[in-house]
């Protein structure tokens, strides 16, 4: 007969072992305890595993050297082996279907019928209302007895909490429409224009020479000839530290002594350094 070997790990518990058993498709299931380490299985858990195997329609066997588990298995009449080879060579005990015990003694209906009064006293053939009432009372009595003696049980199990953590790499993609188990989440691209304006009172004043001084200069002809004045003609002041100015455009000084012409000029150096006080 085919046997499904299920090796157990030290981290296995009742839930993980039941899941492994559910995948078995053979008439026999053999749970193999590890050679080293303990498995978190108690005698009560062993009874639950036995019931789960019966629900699957399979026989349950154990391969373990744990004395506590072996003793609990013998009490449950489960086959226990020392090695997997012995489990495959030795015959397994045949399963005997459990017969429900009779809770009530067998009733002698013939004696009860003989003890009843004469049937003429219970002739309701001509009274249908009485027959229906008697039938209803009998059905209610049976239901009441069933509710009183119906077995019931309440089992409370507090499974241990085991925190688990999983690390998943998440990537955002614009062509994804929904969250995928591989770690892809949908993303949308949006463009925003942010403008910030702030002002604050200045704490002082400073001069930045960025523009040269400008003005007009008058040229006087001291000769009888016409004089041409080119652009960017540099002229100097008569101060202790001479300041330099240059003409902005070309000009012509007419011939004749005393002739004058006004030409726009600007300082060579920007700021107050290149300007007259």
Short description:
The protein is of the alpha/beta class and 277 residues long. The protein has helices at 14-22, 43-55, 67-75, 84-89, 109-115, 128-149, and strands at 3-7, 28-32, 59-63, 80-81, 171-173, 184-186, 212-220, 227-229, 234-236, 244-247, 251-253, 260-270. Helix 1 runs parallel beside helix 2 (43-55).
Explain what you see.
With 277 residues, the chain is α/β, with parallel strands linked by helices. Among the domains are: 3-89, Transcription Regulator spoIIAA (2-Layer Sandwich), CATH 3.30.750; 212-274, no CATH class. It has six helices and twelve strands. The chain has helices spanning 14-22, 43-55, 67-75, 84-89, 109-115, 128-149; strands at residues 3-7, 28-32, 59-63, 80-81, 171-173, 184-186, 212-220, 227-229, 234-236, 244-247, 251-253, 260-270. The strands form four sheets. It has a four-stranded parallel sheet with strand order 1-2-3-4. The chain has a four-stranded antiparallel sheet with strand order 7-12-10-9, with no helix packed on it. A two-stranded parallel sheet has the order 5-6. β1 (3-7), α1 (14-22) and β2 (28-32) form a beta-alpha-beta unit. It is rod-shaped, with a radius of gyration of 57 Å. The protein starts with a strand and ends in a 7-residue tail after the last strand. 9% of the residues are buried.
